[in-house]
Amino acid sequence: MVDCYGMGGLIMHMTNRLDATFAALGDPTRRAILAMLLEDDMAVTDVAEPFEMSLAAISKHLMILMRAGLISQEKRGRVKWCKLEPDALRDVSVWMQGFGQFEPVNLDAFERFLESELPDESQT
Question: Distance between CA atoms of 28 and 61, rounded to whole angstroms?
Fold first, then answer.
């Protein structure tokens, strides 16, 4: 990527993309749409079919996914098709890998540790 933003601008651009991606992924309907598009490109009407909502509501979900760069749309004849963008989650994946350095927390062991270290409140 060419650094045409300066370092601060580049970080802001990355933050905005991550925000848009996480906002898009935060909705179960949009996650379901992405799962459907894993199989193959789909016409908008086919995307809408399994959901109990209007085509206009599905179109809003698709617009959010497009703005996040997770899907693209193209017109083929009179039909609008949706396509999953395979590299769209690369920035999110890179960002999340930074957290891979931490060991998973064993909550049972953590609870035992707290019990051994903290005074028993029932005895006070």
Answer: 10
Where residue 75 sits, what CATH number does that domain have? 1.10.10.10
* Enclosing domain of residue 13: 6-123
Contact status, residue 59 vs residue 71, Cβ threshold 8 Å: no
Q: Domain count of the chain? A: 1
pLDDT in tens, the chain (124 residues): 444 545 455 455 557 888 999 999 999 999 999 999 999 999 999 999 999 999 999 999 999 999 999 999 999 999 999 999 988 888 888 878 877 765 666 667 777 777 777 766 555 5
Task: Report the distance separating Cα 90 and Cα 39, nearest Å.
Answer: 19
